Amino acid sequence: MRKTEFDKPLWIAAHFGFSPIDAPSVTPVDIKITKDCEEDVPKNSNQLVCNAPEKAAFIRHYVDKKLANLPHPLAVSWKRGHNYSLELVGYPVGVAEAKLIRTALSVLTEEGYKDMVVEINSIGDKDSIASYERELKSFVAKTCHNLSQELKKIFKDDAFQIAKSESEEAKGFKKDMPSSIASLTSQSRAQFKEVLDYLDALKIEYRFAPELVGHKNLCSETLFAIRDAENNLLAGGFRYSRLSRRFGFKRELPLIGATIYGGKKVKGTKIYKEAPKSKFYLIHLGRDARMKALNLIELLRGYRIPIHHYLGKDKLVAQMQMPEATKSPYHLIVGQKEALDNTVTVRNTNTRAQDTIPLDNLTEYLKHLPL
Fold it and tell me: Is this structure's pTM higher than 0.85?
């Protein structure tokens, strides 16, 4: 899976557990299999583009390269042109969205962006999407009598185009269109709340964006976008689990990905030959600890202290089965008590000696440990 070299954004993503791979090639088969997911996006549009063929290419790569045999949940990354892709397979709701957003924000911050805004929305599961589509069509029928025949046909063919339309004609009534959140099933509502709980725990500010609806035949549940102060789209992501059925999966493969759209060109961008090397392995115990874990990873990354982790699993046995857990000379443990006290327990894996360190003092403490 490893590339022979990768640049700074992929290196930063590696701190969050993303393994760099070569970009999967988009084939005519991928384009054909996602024909009904085509998007009519105006040139120079500032919309979130779903790029269904690339998502199909990754699923095909996942099957062909037998990535299912690797430890899951799985996190991979690649670069195509000026864009960077981050893909997660098998991650639980909440931690997946939070991991993608936190990683993208860290990459963009290192590229020099400031005052970024996270936009978020949910279109829910299949039943939620069908309900929302009915609401949109009813809205058009009741309120949009003065629309041109061209727009009426577009909205009739795909009601989601109401939310995505950038025409001057549509702007007047878009502010009154129904919200997809109102159509969520109880299960999708609970999942969206889980995502928001993670963002709150990470202290990431966000705003609801009802225009983030993606493509009805591809996307589901949570969608997000990251913009700069001038409203330029810097990154975006969404779930596309339903697409896995087209590749023969009997059950939907839990898939969610994000794209970072280029970035400022940094002179002398360093090329790394290998992933960040770590002497520490993070163990998290419980939901509150998992929510704290991403903040801890980002804190240590800022001080150039990489750590191994396995955020996709809650059970201690699963976390301890990873090779990094046995090879690391120190374990960083965040349980319920540590999460509440804002501390981390540092344990020597050989002597079993341990200290509980306040989070504010952790980076200095780790720097002075004998390795």
Answer: yes
